[in-house]
Amino acid sequence: MSWEIIGKYLPLYQKAAVLTVKIGFIGIAAAITIGLLCTIIQYYKIPVIRRIVSVYIEISRNTPLMVQLFFIYYGLPKIGIQTDAAACGVAGLAFLGGSYMSEAFRSGIEAIAPIQEESAYSLGLSKLQTFSYVILPQAFSISVPAFMANVIFLLKETSVFSAISLMDLMFTAKDLIGLYYKTAESLFLLVMFYLIILLPVSVLGSLLERRSRYAGFGS
């Protein structure tokens, strides 16, 4: 292990880490949005669209992210839809993560007693108000552990972006190993940067879980 080599490689990993975090969190934000929309569609049992959402969730959850990335990066240009590696990475995370986020939200909603919805209607709340002020806050509280697990899972899945030549952490490590054969130093930096990214997210998830517990939910 050469600390001189580690110091030399450090700027390359810092640049790759910024790109990894940027694409990761944009993709996760899109995944949360997609997941919430899918949950609303399933909650209101919207005809036809509900079936489409169910098919999307099954396809997304049962195919690897790498296959999805290859389809977006290499397949879409065949039908005239051009995309770069960064946009492909965001789209891949959003497509995969949307289904997982939807299932996390759905599990939280299903854990809420039906009498809560009935009580909200009896008080004169509309369906939208009931979902926004009664159902969703409690569902989120229950879903926090699964939600944060999905965030960490998606951040770790960014490691496959190297397959589409995106200069992320994994690509940088593989590139340096291939060029200079400094395996120990390259892998050490790879592990350390993933820990730097993921540990704060894990700690934040634990804090959020504790703060969001109330009335026995999430315990």
Properties at a glance:
219 residues; mainly alpha; MetI-like fold; 0% strand
Summary, kept brief:
The chain is mainly alpha-helical and 219 residues long. Helix content is 79%, strand content 0%.
Overview of this structure, please?
The protein has 8 helices and no strands. By secondary structure, the chain is mostly helical. The protein has a single domain, classed as MetI-like fold (Orthogonal Bundle), CATH 1.10.3720.10. Helix 5 packs antiparallel against helix 6 (about 125-155). It starts with a helix and ends in a 7-residue tail after the last helix.
The shape is flat
Query: What is the CATH homology-level superfamily?
Result: MetI-like
Structural class: mainly alpha
Reading the helices and strands in chain order gives: HHHHHHHH
CATH topology tier name: MetI-like fold
Number of helices: 8
**How many DSSP E strands?**
0
How many domains in all? Answer: 1
Transmembrane segments: 20-43, 131-153, 187-208
Keywords: Amino-acid transport, Cell membrane, Membrane, Transmembrane, Transmembrane helix, Transport
Family: Belongs to the binding-protein-dependent transport system permease family. HisMQ subfamily.
Domain ABC transmembrane type-1: 17-200
Describe the secondary structure blueprint for this structure.
Blueprint: H1 3-43, H2 49-61, H3 65-75, H4 85-110, H5 114-122, H6 127-157, H7 169-180, H8 183-212
Helix pairs in contact: 1-4, 1-7, 1-8, 2-4, 3-4, 4-6, 5-6, 6-8, 7-8
Protein name: Amino acid ABC transporter permease protein
Domain ABC transmembrane type-1: 17-200
Main location: membrane
